[in-house]
Design goal:
Layout (H helix, E strand, L loop, with lengths): L5 H9 L12 H15 L5 E7 L4 H5 L4 H11 L10 E7 L4 E6 L1 H4 L4 H16 L3 H19 L15 E2 L1
Parallel strand pairs: 1-2, 1-4
Antiparallel strand pairs: 2-3
Helix pairs in contact: 2-7, 6-7
Pfam families: TPM_phosphatase (PF04536)
Protein name: TPM domain-containing protein
Organism: Methylophilus flavus
Length: 169
């Protein structure tokens, strides 16, 4: 992400609203993403959660919260860290900053270095720049799922510890 003047960032976030997410993600696209999560989770024992936020709340804007800081906060708030094998992964999209963050729990982070997650984020951001929002997210889910499948093979009795619903803030 390139540096942005604080006033421009403040204005972008202040004028962002959750309904703006619909410009990039229709109800059908959100359902496709949820189905992609569910299908992907049958290939491994990990858990994937997607959060799309149009802009930060006013208090967070005033505090200068970065997309990464917000993603880490949501990772904890949504209990993504609380999976049995510590293998939950959050895909966080901040539309106002045009940023993607992947936050993974310690179980999978033992195996996948930060540059591996960053590579997936860059691929997704490239797809978003070309207007492929749904495809960008499903690509991220698939790429994360490949890492999870390598280190957390599917269980005989699959569990769904985290909601597959895309959370729009």
């Amino acid at each position: 992400m390139r540096p942005v003047h604080p006033f421009r960032r403040f204005f972008r976030h202040l004028t962002s609203h959750p309904w703006q997410v619909k410009r990039h993600f229709s109800e059908t696209a959100l359902q496709h993403i949820e189905h992609a999560i569910a299908a992907n989770e049958h290939l491994h024992a990990g858990e994937i959660r997607v959060v799309i936020e149009s802009g930060l709340p006013l208090a967070a804007i005033m505090q200068g919260v970065s997309p990464r800081q917000r993603a880490i906060h949501l990772f904890g708030q949504l209990n993504i860290w609380d999976t049995e094998q510590n293998n939950g992964v959050l895909i966080y999209l901040m539309l106002a900053d045009k940023d993607v963050e992947i936050i993974a729990d310690r179980g999978i982070n033992r195996h996948v270095q930060a540059q591996g997650w960053q590579h997936i984020c860059q691929q997704m951001e490239g797809m978003f720049r070309s207007g492929q929002f749904e495809q960008g997210v499903t690509h991220g889910i698939t790429a994360i799922g490949e890492h999870l499948a390598e280190y957390f093979p599917p269980q005989a009795t699959p569990r769904n510890e985290l909601c597959n619903h895309v959370l729009v803030l």
